[in-house]
Amino acid sequence: MGCPIDVVNQKGGGCALPNRANKMVEVLTAMRAVMGSIPLSVKIRTGIREGVLTADETIRTMVTAAKPDLISFHPRSKLANWEYVNPCLEACGDVPLWVCGDVLNWEEYYSVCFFPTTNVICLNCLFLLKRLEEYPIGGIMIGRGALIKPWIFTEIDERRTWDISATERLDLMKT
C-alpha cells in the first residue's frame, strides 16, 4: 500500500487502497490467511493526496480488522513529516511502527532512532534526546539513502562518514 505509481493508484491499488477500507481489509485478511505463521508487514504513506493526512485512520482500521505484525510508515511526499508520526504511532496500539524517509546518512539515522524493544539509544546531544522522546518508534527503514549510498549501513554501524574512492564505490557495486 506504499506504491505511489499513478497507474497502480488509478486502478485502486498501492497508495489508493486505504481509501477503499473494505477492500483493504479484504486484501489484508486474505494475505494473513495464505501466509500462515509468516509475519505480515504493511507499508503505508501519509495518504494519497498531498496535504491530506489519512494514515492514522488507515492504521486504526488495519489494527482493528486485520492486524498486521508490523507497519512501516513513509511520512513523506517530499520531506518527511515527523510531526505526523505520533498520531500514527498512537493508532498502532501494540503493533510496531517503523518509519522511513529522509535518512540519507548516519547522523540522520541516529537523530530519529530509538528502539524500545532493544533499548538502543544514541546519546549524542540534547537535540537527539528530545527527538527520541518525541518519536519512540520501533525501527527505521532506509530506502532512498541506500540507493544513493549503498555503504550507508557501514556508516551507521561505524557511526562515521565513510568517504570512499570512486574505485572502491565501483568495487562495492560489483559485489
Automatic annotation (TrEMBL):
Which reactions is this enzyme annotated as catalysing?
a 5,6-dihydrouridine in mRNA + NAD(+) = a uridine in mRNA + NADH + H(+); a 5,6-dihydrouridine in mRNA + NADP(+) = a uridine in mRNA + NADPH + H(+); 5,6-dihydrouridine(47) in tRNA + NAD(+) = uridine(47) in tRNA + NADH + H(+); 5,6-dihydrouridine(47) in tRNA + NADP(+) = uridine(47) in tRNA + NADPH + H(+)
Q: Which domain of life is it from?
A: Eukaryota
Query: What Gene3D superfamilies does this protein's entry cite?
Result: Aldolase class I (3.20.20.70)
Output one GO MF annotation: tRNA-dihydrouridine47 synthase activity
Look up the EC number in the record and give it.
Answer: 1.3.1.89
- DUS-like FMN-binding domain residues: 1-108
Membrane-crossing residue ranges in chain numbering:
none
User: Which family does this protein fall into?
Assistant: Belongs to the Dus family. Dus3 subfamily.
- What is the official name of this protein in its record? tRNA-dihydrouridine(47) synthase [NAD(P)(+)]
